[in-house]
Amino acid sequence: MTSSTPALDTPRPVGSVPRAVLLDMDGTLVDTEDFWWDAEVEVFGALGHVLAEEHREVVVGGPMTRSAGYLIEVTGADITLDEVRDLLNAAFLRRLDQGVPLMPGARRLLTELAAHRVPTALVSASHREVIDRTLRSLGAEFFATTVAGDELARTKPHPDPYLTAALRLGAEPAHCVAVEDTATGVASAEAAGCRVLAVPSVAAIPPAAGRTVVDSLESVDLAFLRGLVTGPPPRPTPGPAGGGMAESCS
């Protein structure tokens, strides 16, 4: 699957807002955050280590390299980062192959955006293989472009994924709404200069300037998203320094 093939042939109305909607995948559109945690519990359990719930709050939404490295450190597991990464990916993919449930309101929102020809991007730090498998349940036709973490030098919380998506759609980030469920994803979108709609899946996310927080996508429609981009545009915030491997659990 290509990552930039338009899903819709009909041009969007001139002057429409938001210019684009950029959506995270895991925990935002599909209910897979438990899949990642279950995979981590399984892998480290096989190594003889029990993961505590407090560890989950640290690793949720983060790049896999960071999450796996943290779990190796806190458990003292005798395994390399490359080895545990491969085990986590395999465990997660097994769960994807059993079917991916959508988050409440996700299908309705995507259908409405498509009906109104609003350019939409899927922006995930997960690998292309994970995205393409998930799109079988989610629907590739809803997205004009998809951005995978392993296709970029830096993934979330850096701004690169959202800057890439906005560029592909020909939209200024300040005129885009990014929809995220974790603090890591919110940091990425805000660093890119997007308006952010946070729908927390595991850990709470507080409201802030340029950021709106809701409990569920069931309360979100196009009119709601339009209201998020009618005020003064947010100023991009500096992204985290340094690079990182583009692998993720979000």
Keywords:
single chain; 250 residues; alpha/beta; Rossmann fold; 2 domains; six-stranded parallel β-sheet; 9 helices; 38% helix; globular; disordered N terminus; disordered C terminus
Walk me through what this model shows:
InterPro entries: HAD-like_sf, HAD-SF_hydro_IA, HAD_2, HAD_sf, PGP-like_dom2. By secondary structure, the protein is an alpha/beta fold. It has 2 domains: 142 residues, HAD superfamily/HAD-like (Rossmann fold); 67 residues. A 6-stranded parallel beta sheet has the order 3-2-1-4-5-6, with helices on both faces. β4, α8 and β5 form a beta-alpha-beta unit. α1 crosses α4. The N terminus and C terminus are likely disordered.
Low-pLDDT segments, ≥5 res: 1-14, 236-250
CATH topology of the largest domain: Rossmann fold
The CATH architecture of the largest domain would be: 3-Layer(aba) Sandwich
Q: Which homologous superfamily in CATH is the superfamily of the largest domain?
A: HAD superfamily/HAD-like
What overall form do the CA principal axes indicate?
globular
Total strands: the figure is 6
What structural class results from the helix and strand content?
alpha/beta
The N- to C-terminal Cα distance equals 19 Å
Indicate the radius of gyration in whole angstroms: 17 Å
What is the total domain count? Answer: 2
Query: Helical amount among residues, as a percent range?
Result: 25-40%
Strands in their spatial order, largest beta sheet:
3-2-1-4-5-6
Order of helices and strands: EHHHHHEHEHEHEEH
Average per-residue pLDDT, rounded, comes to 86
**Count of helix runs:** 9
